[in-house]
Design brief:
single chain; alpha/beta; Purple Acid Phosphatase, chain A, domain 2; 4-stranded mixed sheet; 31% helix
Length: 246
């Protein structure tokens, strides 16, 4: 089995199109989406429509939930932009996505952790907003509700990672397709160098074991940055163009 995994598209239509073209060229049996589909100051509606046309198995992310549940004042500026761009029915469809899915035997797909779409699975956050790998005991506790899954797919942190838990599952985060860092919440972006690439993963099962390709693609991120300026979000422009908020 050859499985493509995307996550955290965040309304970046150009990045999504680049990733989908790469997936098609490489050939896979299926593609799964780990959520946070549209929230951004870019192309929420167009991204929703493209993903809807693909009908991929999709997990609901925290932003997919918030766009319907939260009152206007709780949403970030980008969240309010995305909410306004979508119809009420489109927002309801995002909210109706399942919090977890099983895209194959022994595979569990989640957004954050198996029981919390806002929680990190493979990382812990330092006081200054940076992420570090989760301690063994912390990760083990977070995976309790993964049951007997041999492969756990997670997103949310926007960081590519692969961890093999001894006598446990392989855990893979494909990274973010379209949002290297949030322009609304630039804490960690001011402390770290990142990159603007569109990220995803391809997993291949061979003789009962999974191997992973963690991919980072170029796309027209200058156009994405220009779109952020056009929509009134200049702080997001540098996030798309360089992976840092300056």
């Amino acid at each position: 089995m050859r499985l493509a995994v995307i996550s955290d598209v965040h309304g970046n239509l150009l990045a999504l199109e680049a990733v989908l073209a790469d997936i098609k060229a490489r050939g896979v049996d299926a593609t799964v989406n780990l959520g946070d589909c549209v929230t951004s100051p870019l192309w929420p509606k167009e991204t929703f429509e493209l993903l809807q046309s693909l009908a991929l198995p999709t997990v609901r992310g925290n932003h997919d939930r918030w766009i319907e549940e939260w009152p206007e004042e709780r949403l970030s500026p980008a969240g309010r932009f995305a909410r306004a761009a979508l119809t009420a029915e489109q927002r309801r469809q995002l909210h109706a996505l399942p919090p977890t899915i099983e895209p194959g035997q022994g595979i569990l797909a989640v957004h954050g952790t198996p029981d919390d779409d806002c929680a990190l699975l493979l990382e812990e956050m330092l006081d200054d907003g940076r992420y570090v790998p989760a301690r063994r005991d912390v990760l083990t506790a977070r995976l309790v509700k993964a049951g007997a899954a041999q492969l756990v797919l997670c997103g949310h942190s926007h960081r590519q990672a692969l961890v093999q838990v001894p006598r446990g599952p392989l855990v893979v985060n494909p990274g973010s397709v379209g949002c290297p860092v949030f322009g609304d919440i630039p804490i960690s972006a001011q402390l770290e160098h990142r990159s603007p690439h569109a990220r995803y993963a391809i997993l291949t099962e061979r003789r009962g074991h999974w191997q992973a390709e963690l991919l980072a693609l170029t796309y027209d991120w200058d156009r994405a940055a220009a779109r952020a300026v056009e929509t009134g979000f200049p702080s997001w422009a540098s996030a798309y163009a360089s992976g840092a908020v300056v």
